[in-house]
Each structure stands twice: as C-alpha cells, then as structure tokens.
Amino acid sequence: MSHTAHIPSHRKPRRSASKVSLRAGVAGGVLSTIALAGAAAPANAAQPVTETIEMPTLTGNLATTAAATVQATKTVAADLQLQAAQDAAASSAAKDAKKAKDDAEQKAAEAKAKAEAAAKAKAAAAERASRSAERTTLSAASTATSTFKASNATGSAAAIVNFALAQVGKAYVSGATGSSAYDCSGLVQAAYRQVGVDLPRVSQDQSATGTQVSLSNLQPGDILYWGSSGSAYHVAIYVGGGNFVGAQNPSTGVVERSLDWDQPTGAVRVL
User: Fold this and answer.
1) What topology is assigned to 131-269 in CATH?
2) What pTM was estimated for this model as a whole?
C-alpha cells in the first residue's frame, strides 16, 4: 500500500453546527426551567397541601340489605333463645314426671305391703276365732257329758277323768306339762298326778306301765297307746262311753274323740 493512502480515523465525526446549536438551545431551555422551578419552590413549601377524600355513600339497596340482615340475625337469636327455654322446660318436666312416677310406685308398693299384712292379720284372727269356737264347743260338749262319764267312774278314776275333760280346748305344745298347754304324755302324767300317781314322762314308758288290758275291757282312767307297748308314739286317757281325751297335735290341741275316730293299739291299767 502507498504511504500516501488514506487511513480511517477513529475519532468521532464532528457534529454539524446546526445540531450543536439546537442541542445547546434545548439544554439552555431546560436549565432555565429548572432554575425557575427552584426559585419558586421556597415560596410554595410554606403552604400545606390538603386533599379531600370522599367516602362512598350507601345506595338504597345496600341499606335495605343491611337492615334485613340485622333483622334476620335478631330473629335467629330470638329463635335460639326460645328453643333453649323450651328445652329447659322439657327437661324440667321430664324430671318432675320421673319423680312423680317413682313416688307413685313407692306408695303403691307400700299400700300393697300394708294390704297384704292386713289380709294376713285378718286370716290369722279368723283362724284364732275358729279355733276358739271349736274349743268352746268341745268344752261345752265335754261339760255336758262329764257328769255321765264321771258317774261311771269311781274314786281315783273319776278324778283322773274329770281332770282330763277339764283340759279339753287347751293348746298342744311339744314338751309341755300344763297348765295352759300339754303334749300327749304330759297330759296323762298331769292327770295321774291328781291322785298321787307319778307316771314316767314319755309315752314309750307310760305304755309299759301297769297291766296290759284288752280294748274290749276298758275302764275310765285307763291309758290308751298307739304303737307297740314300750315304744308307743302317742298316749291318751279313756274317759268312758267309748271316748278318750288326748293332746293330739298343734292343730287340734286337747280334744275328746271317739275310739272309732282313731283306734288305739292297746291299753294299760295303772289303778
């Protein structure tokens, strides 16, 4: 290449005079504006800036809706309060009803118990009255016939028979020997004690005391026995006329009965 050849320069191309002038004018105008604003700023800084914000006004529809909501809330609250009161009243009524039922059942049970007790007492009184009437009847019958029977007995035998007849209607109590109650051997022992004869206490021994006699040859005052001699389970006194007096059992007490009512096994004569 020739040393005279053109080498491009790295410098920026020069601006035209018109563009430079235009830019200078613009810059000058901007600076002038800034200067004017800066001069005016101190004067404006002393005055406060106020701004008014307007709140939106509720329209008619919104006001109506709000009022309805308030009313609905009050209605719901009232309903809840009423329901709570009704529930409380129902619970109280249920408790009162249960208490009343329990009281009624208790009173009914007490009344039933009293009625049952009264019925039992009435039945017992009727039974006692019946026994008393039976004993009175038997006693009257014995009294009516005692003269005849006693007339057939003499001496000690008559005393034994009369004593036995006088005990008719009294109670039977196991182990009793008088004077308000007897068992079978206790009555026989007490009757013979009236004439000074001391018999053994139990029926087994009484059935083996004295002389054995036939049932077809009985005399007033003889001791009748049921079972075997020496092991008898029951004894009584023959009073004549085909009858005997004995303390039979707790249901009948001391009674007068016919030999046909309960035929004895044998008899002994002590006198």
Assistant:
1) endopeptidase fold (from Nostoc punctiforme) (3.90.1720)
2) 0.47
